[in-house]
Amino acid sequence: MSHPPLPLADAEAVLANIQDGVVVLSNQRIVYVNPTMAAMVGLTPEDMIGMAMDAMIAPEWRQLVRDRHRRRLAGEEVPDRYPFELVHANGRDRISVILSIGTPIQTDGETRVFGTIKDMSVLQRALDEVAERERDLQNIIDSIPDIFFRTDVNGVVTRVSPSVEAILGYPPAAVLGRPLADFYLDQSDRDRVMRTVKAQGGKVSNLETAMRHRSGRTLWLSTNAFFRRALHGEVIGIEGIARDMTARKTLEDELRRLAVRDPLTGLANRAHLADSLGAAISRARRIDSQLAVLFIDLDGFKQINDQHGHAEGDHLLREVAQRLSRAVRESDHLARIGGDEFVVVVEGVAERAAVQRVGDKIIEAIQAPFSLGGQAIHLGATVGVACFPIHAPDGKALLRLADAAMYRGKRQGRGQVVFFSPTKDL
User: Fold this and answer.
1) Same domain, yes or no, for 401 and 373?
2) Are 279 and 394 found together in one domain?
3) Are residues 67 and 188 in the same domain?
4) How many domains does the chain have?
5) 39 with 85, same domain?
6) Are residues 268 and 380 in the same domain?
7) Which residues pair with 386 in a beta bridge?
8) Do 277 and 420 reside in the same domain of the chain?
9) What values do phi and psi take at 133, rounded to 5?
10) Is the peptide bond before 171 cis (omega within 30 degrees of 0)?
């Protein structure tokens, strides 16, 4: 039996009272937010109407969100649920959230996208309130989104909360009476949990375990549990609460990746390059070997970026990164250190000619035409080279000298490989 749609006023009243933030986008601008969403960032709904979709997104997350929004509108397969960070209106506080985004819909000739944003701290605050008010166990079991579970001494589930279906995909009836070990990614983890609880005096906090969702995908749960004991103290099972921390794990993994990777191209960033170059120098020094640092600067990129815009420029940089990755060996260290500058570290070079060949291969890869907006675009590259230990004993100096050689190559006509020369570059 179908039901008529809610009147607009009733629908807005529902959205205004749900605990998650709600946002509706049109033409990459906000056309609706509920009070929860506005309060999350310290604004009012009226403040946010008309704002750009990424105005409150932390700078380091904006490109990811923009890219996924663009691809979703284009009909591509992209994740419909992922973490990122918002910036509070005070400019200081960060809010870690999970975005769940809906399928774009056409309304009055406009494409609109509906999304919900969950504050990852909301659950903890809810649990704290529950504890402070000393609600009884049944109310907690029925109300919290975490999994409450109880097993007997053999590890068979005797009680589980309804939220197990939302998290693991199994209805409670499919979990009751089965060994808890059946749901671990590694069934031996059940023995590890028991050993940990015993070693920590009968209780454990924030124990991380990998579980298997009914669909087969892996989830991470953080568990607080304790031994249940009979009247005379003997252990009769385990009772605990397990929280889905998959989103947090995903966020941590993404933050770790961003710490060492250039978010635009996925190549190593400057910080990762410094570590890799330092380690390469240590290896070369230990085995009395040589290495070369190739400093690459694109010729003509600024003009193309100014003419076609930053979005197309970013696309071009990603294409350049892919070509460079194919042009160097898997054992070489490739990084983007900013703008249109890239660095390659080549270990185990025995002669100058070998480095020259690497540089020539890089220039050849960049000189092949690119396609941008249906047009053939031509770029070039100038490569400056400094070698260890001939030119400098440390990574910082090698980069500086390779950069100096590259700029001399620019002055000499571009599109060439130039080795550092103390008489010409200092």
Assistant:
1) yes
2) yes
3) no
4) 3
5) yes
6) yes
7) 293
8) yes
9) -85, 0
10) no
Are residues 104 and 203 both part of a single domain?
A: no
SS (H, E, C) 311-365: HHHHHHHHHHHHHHHHHCCCCCEEEEEECCEEEEEEECCCCHHHHHHHHHHHHHH
More confident residue, 146 or 191: 146
- Residue 371's DSSP bridge partners are 376
Q: pLDDT at residue 1 above 70? A: no
Q: In the predicted model, is pLDDT for residue 45 greater than 80?
A: yes
pLDDT of residue 2: 45
- The dihedral through the CA atoms of 172, 176, 179, 182 has a sign that is negative
Cα separation, 414 vs 412, in Å, equals 6
User: HSE on the CB side for 278, CA within 13 Å?
Assistant: 7
Residue located via tokens 């009247």: 231
CA quadruple 252, 258, 260, 261: dihedral, nearest 10: 140
Name residues whose C-beta falls within 8 Å of residue 61's C-beta, 6 or more positions apart in sequence.
Answer: 84, 85
CA angle in degrees (0–180, nearest 5) for 25-17-68:
25
DSSP 183: G
How many other CB atoms sit within 10 Å of the CB of residue 103? 9
- DSSP state at residue 46: H
Question: How many angstroms separate the CA atoms of 157 and 182, rounded?
Answer: 10
Same domain membership, residue 54 and residue 30: yes
- Mean pLDDT computed over 274-280: 93
Q: Is the pLDDT of residue 128 over 80?
A: no
- Domain extent at residue 175: 124-249
CATH number at residue 303: 3.30.70.270
Helical H segments across 43-114, by residue range: 45-48, 59-73
**Which of the listed residues 193, 226, 249 is the one where a domain comes to its end?**
249
Of 107-116, 323-332, 362-371, the one with minimum mean pLDDT is 107-116
**Average pLDDT taken over every residue of the chain:** 87
Q: Which amino acid is at 372?
A: L
Mean pLDDT of the 82-105 span: 88
Backbone angles phi, psi at 22, to 5 degrees: -125, 135
User: Closest by alpha carbon to 32, among 87, 106, 112?
Assistant: 112
Express each pLDDT in 316-353 by its tens digit. 999 999 999 999 999 999 999 989 999 999 999 888 99
Domain-terminating residue out of 53, 86, 120: 120
- Region 180-201: mean pLDDT is 84
Assign 122 a pLDDT band (cuts: 50, 70, 90).
low
